[in-house]
UniProtKB/TrEMBL annotation:
Organism this protein belongs to: Salmo trutta
Keyword flag Membrane: yes
Sequence ranges of Pro residues compositional bias: 454-466
Main location: membrane
Organism classification: Eukaryota, Metazoa, Chordata, Craniata, Vertebrata
Protein name (Swiss-Prot/TrEMBL): Cell adhesion molecule 3
GO cellular component: presynaptic membrane
Length: 491
């Protein structure tokens, strides 16, 4: 039968496709059309591990399955052990399956294992066992001693026993570094490899106490399973800072500053200097400390400290600015009162009294007056105190306008003795005032006196001063003998 000429190329194409499909099918171990054909699979195991070899058939005709090793020695025939090797054990045996295990696998166990079924004809299948050589823990060499800042260090990492060859990776504090390409050497005694890698680093002070790590990357290991670290010590000059004992140095107080040098090694020598001058006489140097026994404004300045650790010298500075002591002059209340002794003219100090003892004294206004009398036996009392006045007030003694005015009052007038006062009743309502202008003497007797003020003697002439402005303080202190009280005129 002859085919038309236009069909001939198509027939050739169909034939080639059929042959190609048959060729590809022959490379697979699965034969769907033969239920008695054994089926196996390849296995990979690490040295020292256990591998399981399984052989199956789709159907059983009561024929036995058998496993043989790479030397074609029978390991198991059905349920019967044929080779006396305790590492090989029966795992499962049925009419359609034969599975065995090989424990403590060695590199010599690598190769092809054969499963056979004794039918007519005998059918076989092969399984390849690949044994991985487990690499040893990496070792780092090349580091012998400390390295000075700016120097170089070369480290070598070595790992042996891997199969296939392992890959080495470098790390610095968990950050991966790039070393030189690995060098692979074959071990003469067994089919394993030794891998060598080098890393060269230029170190700085930040690398001091840094951990340089080398890790092995291999199929037989989990990530990071085998890892070695090498700490690096770097020598460097100190960083110098000066720290004060407190942040507010006050005049008259003790003060300490410390020179702190962070270097490797630690500084062993400290030199203190004062910029543009000598150290104060009361300043004492004690190693890294500079002590001021009592601060003074003359101690102000810039102080320098130089620290030396044998690798180098570095200098730090501190600016000292001495502060004034706390100023209490803004307190409007008297700080002390002076009471007389047995003598009526005595000005000896007495225990201080609280401002609360004289509440009406602070509220006295211009033109205020009171009258009264003390017993004749009670000598007049002299109170002497200083009252800092606010900037918007001016206090002056209440004198006669003909003898003294606010425009001629000196900042600090002398004490003026007044024979009587008009404030006694308002300040001490429960006391009676004596009309005597002076304490009684041996040749005088008590007599009454008016409550009006007497002007100072003509011989007492306060020095003239310029009229104070509205925000000036005039006077800063007043001392007046008024039978135990004071009279102020607020302005």
């Amino acid at each position: 039968m002859a085919f038309p000429s236009y069909l001939v190329p198509n027939l050739w194409t169909l034939t080639l496709l059929t042959l190609l499909a048959a060729s590809v099918q022959s490379n697979f171990i699965v034969f769907d059309d033969d239920p008695l054909q054994p089926v196996t699979q390849d296995e990979t195991v690490s040295v020292g591990g256990t591998v399981t070899l399984t052989c199956r058939v789709a159907a059983s005709d009561n024929s036995s399955l058998q496993w043989s090793n790479t030397a074609q020695q029978t390991l198991y025939f059905g349920e019967k052990r044929a080779l006396r090797d305790n590492r090989i054990q029966l795992y499962r045996s049925t009419g359609t399956e034969l599975s065995i295990t090989i424990g403590n696998v060695q590199l010599s166990d690598e190769g092809e294992y054969t499963c056979s079924i004794f039918t007519m004809p005998v059918r076989t299948a092969r399984a390849t066992v690949t044994v991985l050589g487990v690499p040893g823990k990496p070792q780092i060499s090349g580091y012998e001693d400390t390295v000075q800042e700016g120097g170089k260090v070369t480290l070598t990492c070595t790992s042996s026993g891997s199969k296939p060859p392992a890959k080495l990776r470098w790390y610095r504090n968990q950050e991966e570094l790039t070393g030189r390409p690995d060098v692979v050497e074959t071990n003469p005694d067994e089919a394993t490899y030794t891998v060598i890698s080098e890393l060269t680093l230029t170190v700085g002070r930040s690398d001091d106490n840094t951990l340089i790590g080398c890790a092995v990357d291999h199929p037989s290991l989990s990530s990071g399973e085998k890892w070695t670290e090498q700490p690096i010590r770097v020598l460097f000059t100190p960083d110098v800072t000066i720290q004060p004992q407190n942040d507010l140095p006050r005049e008259g107080e003790k003060f300490i500053i410390q020179c702190i040098g962070n270097g490797n090694p630690k500084p062993t020598s400290y030199v203190w200097q004062r910029k543009d001058g000598e150290l104060p006489l009361l300043a004492k140097v004690d190693g890294s400390f500079l002590l001021f026994e009592m601060l003074n404004k003359s101690d102000n300045g810039v102080y320098l400290c130089q620290a030396d650790n044998g690798i180098g010298k570095m200098q730090g500075e501190y600016t000292l600015l001495v502060q004034d002591l706390t100023d209490d002059s803004n307190n409007l209340f008297p700080t002390s009162f002076y009471l007389p002794s047995s003598s009526p003219t005595s000005d000896s100090p007495s225990p201080s009294l609280s401002p609360d003892s004289f509440p009406t004294l602070m509220s006295t206004t211009s033109g205020s007056s009171a009258s009264g009398s003390l017993p004749a036996s009670s000598p007049p009392t002299i109170f002497s105190f200083s009252v800092p006045y606010p900037s918007d007030l001016t206090f002056i003694p209440s004198f006669s306008s003909s003898s003294l005015s606010t425009s001629s009052l000196s900042p600090s007038p002398p004490p003026v003795k007044v024979l009587s006062t008009s404030l006694s009743n308002s300040l001490f309502p429960d006391l009676s005032m004596s009309p005597e202008p002076h304490p009684p003497s041996s040749d005088s007797s008590p007599s009454s006196s008016s409550s009006s003020f007497s002007p100072p003697p003509a011989s007492v002439t306060p020095p003239s001063v310029a009229p104070p402005s509205s925000d000036s303080l005039t006077p800063s202190s007043v001392t007046i003998r008024l039978n135990g009280v004071y009279s102020f005129t607020g302005k």
